[in-house]
Amino acid sequence: MPRKSRFKRRPNNSGTVVKLSGKRRNPYCARVMSDERDIITGKKKQVCIGTFATREEALNALSIYSLKKSNAITNEEARNLAPDLYDRIQEKTQKRVPTFYEIYQILDDEEFSKLSKSARNGYSSWIKRFENIHNRQINTITLADLQFIFDNDGAANGTQAHMKVLCSKIFEYAVIHQYISRDDDYTSYIRIAEFKQSTKHYPFSVDEIRKLQSVDTSEVHLLLIYIYTGLRAGELLYINRDNIHIDEPCNDDGVDRVISYIITGSKTEAGKNRIVPIHNDIKRYVIDELLKKEERLIDCTYASLNNTVLSAVNRFLKTSHTMHDTRVTFASLCQLYKVDVYARKKILGHKLKDITFDIYTKASKNRLWTEVNKIKL
Predict the structure, then answer these.
(1) Is residue 8 part of a domain?
(2) Among 106, 204, 258, 261, which one is least packed by beta carbons within 10 Å?
(3) Alpha carbon distances (Å) from 189 to 80, 102, 154, 194, 204
(4) Higher pLDDT, 86 or 128
(5) Tally of domains within the chain
(6) Same domain membership, residue 218 and residue 128
(7) pTM score, two decimals?
């Protein structure tokens, strides 16, 4: 009569437990099939996920491994179920899983390096805020770990929103490359700091703009150009004269007009190489300050722009405006004079959420110029 085994046979592909020979502290070895195949036989190789003091411990380790591999439970649930077993399994099977910072370095090389310098610098700044988990393998990081960083970071809503985007990219990479399951990507549940309306930036008032229009200096001219175009400070610095078009015939909307515009843009894909119409009220300033052959005041650094243009204007108005206030002012004027929201976003270089407008609608120079000239001061 065949001898009956004392142990029930495990289902196929669920792993096996074998007792190792000799005297050992942990004689029971839990083995599972890996995805790696023998180069000669083509058969899948068996790998050890740990050795244990008792057969029961080894069987429990196989059960936890199987549940994790099939995504029946998350990493966090597995850790809560049997912390010691989970850690030992992780140590044996997950040595090749990259750390949080290693994935960032991959993304920095493959994705962030293609962005503008300022955008890439942003990511290199935000990653520093996750220093506590830099060396943690991605599959060991929990929602609690992430939330603790956000709760104790102290950054404002805007910065934390960027931090969350970075986290999402890192965890998305881990999911795509199967270092974690979709269920282990907790980034959408991260709570960030509440939004608080900034008091740092405020628009120039209509009275302030009219006062500036009464002054005939290069500093005031440049500031008015910024106010009427909504350009970012850096988008006008060192601008190429070839990108400034004055009194150019145009009929791209079917109507013959003579318009003026600038081609510029930076920072985002939506903002690059965009058409920025020149309002009639500042056309003379653009010609005088941006097209003159001799050295231009605008050919300077951002710091110099603040120390010359902005300081002179603030002294005259007795205010404390920032350069970004000019962009805020343009947006406010567009709202006040009912400039079409599509034209406004195109001029400012903001991405439109409406896919029809954002992808399929080509910006008409005539339309942008017509809309911006609705502003009457």
Answers:
(1) no
(2) 258
(3) 20, 23, 19, 15, 39
(4) 128
(5) 3
(6) no
(7) 0.53
